[in-house]
Amino acid sequence: MTAGLNRRNFLQLGATAGAAALFERWGFAQAAQAAAPADRAAQMRAAGASTPIKTTKLYDNLWLLQGAGGNMAVQTGKDGVILIDSSFSTAVPHIKEAIAALGPDAPHALINTHWHIDHVDGNEGMHAAGFTIVAHEKTKERMSKPAEMKLFHMSLPAYPAGALPTVTFADTMKHDHNGDTVERVHYEPAHTDTDIYIHFHNADVLHCGDIFFNKSYPFIDEGSGGSIGGTIDAAQKSLSLAGDKTKIIPGHGPLGDKTDLKAYIDMLSTVRDKVAALKKSGASEQEVIAKKPTADLDATWAHGGSPDMFLGIVYRTV
Ligand SMILES: [Zn+2]
Ligand SMILES: [Zn+2]
Question: pLDDT tens digits for 58-90?
């Protein structure tokens, strides 16, 4: 993978402080420390080992779990435990501990929101603990072969059989479980082409995965079919499902609600429109970045980091 570190990508990632800040915001704090690109997955896993899991109650039998990777959720009850996403492999002991603290219910299903390492790397460990892995069919497809994440200079081997989803679907899956209706729906390509949302109807909780980064600029995986327009469409679809009291779990960032999601869509749309206009006028990617079109948004969304990486993604996918 080190061989894949071409000059353009190196400049893109290294010459701006943005990458480090974004990594941190996305819960990859350890990975933000610059080291050999090949070590990034190892650094993320180190963060998974050292970061405790914070549990927040959302409903009678539904909790938000937050650690080093993407935000997780747990539903408990006599029908068995449902877990959404599995963080890094090294976080598995912490996840098991957090679930055990919620009660004695048996493992049932682990649902992956999409294929990224910070959401599926714990799959093998949770599967070994008794969870059946459920995901969109493309999540299984992408996890089944080696992958590259060029923006992070990461090269990932195919996941072992025990980590792969064994129950997959193309569009939707819905069933009653632990007194709630649990609906899983595939988004059109957005953050990736594997994204789904999970909607707990009675609890009024919506897990959006990484189509929603609450209170920060997002990472969008253009190498997996992601785009700024698709992300906006998916966020709008999610917003249409939400009521005033709906708790909305983002892939990263704090628990959100309709107001947060609306603000996120407004930010994405503003940046998309500005970058699209500049691109149409003939500006190159570096020229767009140099114009700092997000200057007035950065205080709210960049959290001290540079928005350059986000602008590059928008430019390339608009
Ligand atoms: Zn993520
Ligand atoms: Zn992701």
Answer: 999 999 999 999 999 999 999 999 999 999 999
**116 contacts: CB under 8 Å, gap ≥ 6:** 70, 192, 210, 221
Q: What is the reported pTM? A: 0.90
Ligand found nearest the CA of 68: 1
Distance 7 CA to ligand 1 centre (A): 26
Q: Kindly identify the ligand whose nearest atom is closest to the C-alpha of 85.
A: 1
Q: Among the bound ligands, name the one nearest to the CA of residue 253.
A: 1
The token pair at 222 is: 């253009």
Surface-to-core class of residue 215, CB atoms within 10 Å of its CB (0-12 exposed, 13-18 middle, 19+ buried): middle
CA–centroid distance, residue 114 to ligand 2 (Å): 7
Q: How far is the CA of 246 from the centre of ligand 2 (A)?
A: 22
How many angstroms does the Cα of residue 219 sit away from the middle of ligand 2? 7
Instruction: Tell me how far the alpha carbon of residue 237 is from its chain's centroid.
Output: 17
Determine whether domain 2-317 maps to CATH 3.60.15.10.
yes
Q: Is 34 exposed, middle or buried (0-12, 13-18, 19+ CB in 10 A)?
A: middle
Ligand 1: centre distance to CA 282 (Å): 33
Report how far residue 48's alpha carbon sits from residue 26's, in angstroms, rounded to the nearest whole number.
Answer: 13
Distance 160 CA to ligand 2 centre (A): 20
Q: What is the pLDDT of residues 128-170, one digit of tens each?
A: 999 999 999 999 999 999 998 888 888 899 999 999 999 999 9
